[in-house]
Design goal:
heterodimer; A: 313 residues; alpha/beta; Rossmann fold; Alpha-Beta Plaits; 2 domains; six-stranded mixed beta sheet; 26% strand; elongated; disordered N terminus; B: 256 residues; mainly alpha; two-stranded antiparallel sheet; 2 strands
Chain lengths: 313, 256
């Protein structure tokens, strides 16, 4: 469990992004992104690689200057007071940028120095955090002795050294095995429970669906839809979908149109959304004698497929 | 209210991080600046003195070892501050992602940059001071000359550290560090009045060598043998060059 120290949470502090734009030359990377992240909320930025998630996060903590728009964190304007804002933020970047020159414990203690935390207090805090991310037995190990999952947990511990009010997690579980991802998810849930605002970028829909209270779907730097995971699924896809292979496309398209639904290419076959009363369509689909026919619950991947025609991966 | 881009604490905090890394392996780190001048003084000094004899410098005859001792201090400063600025900063910037990590803390870009620069200068100062102590113990450089040479050594360290950081900010691959090394550092190391007076060079080459900043540093550090004519011009040249390089390197690093 992460700490529940009252000092760490200012429930009135929200982060608001106003109409953020980032252009590299003439090329827009982020286009008019705006949202509010409230304390105790997990907000997900979901999108494929190159959608502008990392650039958006960079603007949120002041590492990237927006071409237009600004970010307000409580009473702090991030672009002109990045240092003050970051003093209350925790940031987990996409890459493991742990200090290979230091041990696990030293990584936390020396990082705490940048926040003017005394050496004694830093050691105490580092000990607490290492216990919380289950790395207490590795305090004296070197960074290259840690697994990928351990490194990600240590980066998260480092981001929490200053009792942040808000935490940015930029694709924190990319490259981790399922067990390590589960462990990381638990830490994120704990952060939320202690009232910390969390902004999570990911292209794993299961991660977003499980952790996020609200989602912003990004494509080519633009928000193409937003809402809670269940809202997005219900509104865009419905309850159930069918994966189907080995049928005539024209016939499938006709069936979908007649049933008032849609289908999209999906892998080596097609994805078809089932209408609220799917019995007749299901019967018609089975009668086409497809090579494969799978009926399952709709998920965020299907939302993305419907909205963009592409997948998240 | 807008927070200042640079605070003393921020710069110190970045410098402190580098110092802590240095402290972990201080013995290994101190070995090159200690061993190099000893090796050079033994090999060049004892090896060449019987062949060269005394050297004429500032209208006086000077034992060869006394002539090269101040140059050893200047070379130590050049190598340590340049290589720290070029190699180590490039690695921290591009491989270790140390800059990226530091910029997630309440530090500004300018503080991270200045912290790296000051650390490169610190490495130069450590090398120059250790070499100076060896030269003093050897009886080749008066102790009070060394004491009053400290501001000159600091200026040289900042200048060559800036040169190193400019290199780190300008190259895309680590092998490209060799470009300034072979086009600038090695020519300075050999031609700037370090191992022989520049008066022995062909006039044009001697004038080119005089413009190179290591010549100014070496001449100023050789003040125990007599200050050169227009010494203040050399000092001004080093200060000007340092300011230009600092502005230039800052522009190379600043993010969009």
């Amino acid at each position: 469990m992460l700490p529940t120290t009252a000092q760490s949470i200012d429930r009135a502090t929200a982060l608001v992004a106003y109409d953020l734009w980032k252009l590299y030359g003439e090329r827009p990377v982020v286009q008019g992104v705006g949202f509010t992240l409230n304390p105790g909320e997990v907000l997900g930025l979901l999108g494929p690689n190159g959608a502008g998630k990392t650039t958006t996060v960079g603007m949120l903590y002041g590492a990237v200057n927006p071409s237009r728009g600004f970010v307000q964190f409580g009473s702090i304007q991030v672009q002109s007071n990045g240092r003050s804002a970051r003093a209350k933020m925790g940031i987990v970047t996409q890459e493991d940028n742990l200090d290979p020159d230091f041990s696990v414990m030293e990584n936390l203690v020396h990082f705490a120095h940048h926040y003017r935390i005394s050496s004694k207090a830093a050691r105490q805090r580092a000990g607490e955090l290492l216990a919380q991310v289950d790395l207490q037995d590795y305090a004296q190990n070197q960074i290259d002795e840690l697994s990928g999952g351990m490194k990600r947990r240590l980066v998260l511990a480092r981001a929490l050294i200053n009792h942040p009010q808000i935490v940015f997690l930029d694709e924190p579980t990319t490259g981790l095995d399922p067990d390590a991802r589960q462990e990381f998810w638990k830490l994120v849930t704990d952060l939320k429970q202690r009232g910390c605002g969390v902004l999570l970028t990911t292209h794993y829909m299961d991660e977003a669906q499980r952790l996020c209270d609200r989602l912003l779907l990004l494509q080519q730097g633009q928000v193409i839809d937003q809402g809670t995971p269940s809202e997005l699924i219900d509104r865009t896809v419905g309850k159930e979908v069918v994966e189907i292979e080995g049928v005539d496309v024209a016939e499938l398209q006709t069936l979908a149109t007649q049933a008032g639904t849609w289908c999209r290419p999906f892998g080596s076959g097609y994805l078809l959304a089932l209408p609220p009363n799917p019995a007749q369509l299901w019967e018609q689909l089975t009668s086409t004698q497809p090579q494969r026919l799978t009926r399952r619950q709709a998920n965020l991947e299907d939302v993305f497929l419907r909205l963009t025609g592409g997948s998240l991966q | 209210m807008k927070s200042p881009a640079i605070t003393a604490w921020g710069v110190y905090s970045v410098w402190h991080r580098h110092a802590m890394v240095y402290r972990r392996t201080w013995l290994v780190n101190c070995l090159p600046p200690l061993s190099e001048p000893i090796i050079y003084l033994v090999s060049f000094g004892y090896g060449l003195t019987p062949l060269v004899g005394d050297v004429t410098y500032a209208n006086q005859s000077v034992p060869y070892l006394n002539f090269i001792a101040p140059a050893m201090i200047a070379i130590g400063i050049l190598f340590q501050s340049f290589f720290e600025g070029a190699y180590a900063s490039f690695i921290r910037l591009n491989f270790q992602k140390t800059w990226q990590a530091l910029l997630t803390a309440p530090l500004s870009f300018a503080e991270v940059f200045l912290g790296d620069w000051l650390w490169a200068a610190t490495k130069g100062m450590i090398a120059g001071s250790l070499t100076g102590v060896i030269a003093t113990v050897w009886g080749l450089y008066p102790v009070w000359n060394l004491f009053f040479a400290i501001p000159i050594m600091l200026l040289g360290s900042l200048l060559f550290g800036a040169m190193g950081l400019l290199t780190a900010g300008s190259i895309r691959q680590i092998d490209q560090v060799n470009i300034p090394i072979f086009l600038l550092i090695v020519p300075m190391f050999t031609l700037c009045g370090t191992y022989f007076p520049r008066t022995t060079l062909p006039p044009i080459l001697g004038q080119i060598a005089t413009i190179l900043p290591l010549s100014s540093l070496t001449d100023l550090l050789r003040w125990n043998l007599g200050l050169p004519e227009f010494w203040w011009l050399k000092l001004l040249w080093m200060i000007t060059l340092m300011i230009i390089l600092r502005a230039w390197q800052f522009a190379r690093f600043i993010p969009s």
